Amino acid sequence: MPDHSPVALSTIGKKILMGATGLALVGFVIVHLAGNLLLLSPNPDHFNRYAHTLESMGALLYVAEAGLVFLFLAHIYSGITVYWCNRRARPQSYKKSGRAGGVSRKSSSSTSMIWTGLILFAFLIWHLWEFKYGAGVEQGYAVQLGSEVVRDLHRLVVESFQKEYVTLLYVLVMILLGFHLRHGFWSAFQSLGLYHPRYTGLIYGSGVVLAVLLAVGFLFIPVWIYFLGGG
Amino acid sequence: MAELLTLRLRVWRQESETAPGKLVDYHVDGISVDMSFLELLDVLNEQLIHKGDDPVEFDSDCREGICGTCGLVINGVAHGPLPGITCCQLHMRHFKDGDTITIEPWRSAAFPIIRDLVVDRDAFDRIIAAGGYVATNTGAAPDANALPIAKNDADLAMDASSCIGCGACVASCPNGSAALFVGAKISQYTFLPQGQPERRRRALRMVAQMDREGFGNCSNHAECEAVCPKDISISNIARMRREYLKASLLRE
Ligand code: HEM
Ligand code: FES
Fold first, then answer.
1. Which of the listed residues A180, A182, A210 should we mutate to test ligand 1's pocket, taking the one with most ligand atoms within 8 A of CB?
2. What is the pTM of this model?
3. Is A193 on the interface with B (CB under 8 A)?
């Protein structure tokens, strides 16, 4: 019998993978929000120029996209396998459930990670379908930027967020992102073995602040556009 | 005379590992607030035996909070509502007259129920047997000053080694994870010179055995630390992860 299984298949290895990919995704989400805030500018050119610059990066863009796909798939792989492992470990649940309180960090966030995560994934597919692979220059979403004609992504976004259900869904999913990160941020550090008697409390608090900022930042954009029509 | 309590108990009764179990209601009165929780069960069992019923099986040994045998989930919380104690150290003064108390066994695939509230915790022993020891031949007791150990290290080793292996961490964890137990048992040796020769092997083998036993994965809920009768910190879980990662990367 071997002494041990390959790292990536052990419970601990999966959590290290989940924590590392989770933190990297947090980094992505922060950068993504920073870029999207250009949608709040009264001049649509600002956002369109940014989007066009990203799309014109060529090989670099493919590398970045491949990296993101890897991060998401590795994160989801570890999330789902860990969830099944946990289900099997407690085949019969308690008739009466309780909470210990005190130093426990068990919360609505921590116990719903798989659900908020899976909803985020479903959302991600829809989101890419709508915007990344949505209408472009050929469908008339074109705008003159200097000497070039580029995709008018700004118009596509603004039109999408005129629909109640789209804006509503974005708001709901972004709240769930906040829940995911409220537990996820500090948890990632702990999964990577980074605990410190003084700083762990600080990391937990920062995670809550970050979760609120990211959720509010992201959901503010569709709400703003819905009410002000992007003007 | 001290106050006496009348209580409704809902106790998990299960004939054997494979038999289906259920909660059964019992009424007890005349419970002194000075009794321990186990003495409450003793009173219930006296009552059942007098009636010719089967007594409720539960584990206990030292009844002074050091052996870790008396595992019960009381109203959904391992070892009951107070932090830092075992069930035998929980006194009835923490309950009110007329309370309903639900009592269940540790629930974990790795801890099969033997009968009623008694579970089989051999999985913990097998994890220890996989590497939770020091195999050096110590010979005669060495001079106490021959191996100086920094006070801080000694304290941390002592904190980790205060684990009594009760299994409350597994019982309370929404995932049925044994991370706190294994974390403590790996950590205690990392601070001491005697633990160094087998350090990598220990981490790898104990984690592998933990996984083989069917415990869940740790999602950092920290519910384990909140119910641990010895207040063992989840910093030991982080240390286990570091030890495991280092050992995996550096193994020959
Ligand atoms: C795409 C679908 C996603 C799924 C299915 C998913 C699922 C999960 C699950 C199940 C966990 C941990 C549960 C556990 O510890 O047992 C988790 C943790 C985490 N997730 Fe996600 N997630 C997703 C997306 C995201 C996104 C978009 C981010 C970042 C913005 C993110 C950041 C994190 C972080 C930081 C953790 C904590 C890692 C740890 O505990 O070590 N996740 N995720
Ligand atoms: S019986 Fe020994 S700790 Fe409770």
1. A180
2. 0.94
3. yes
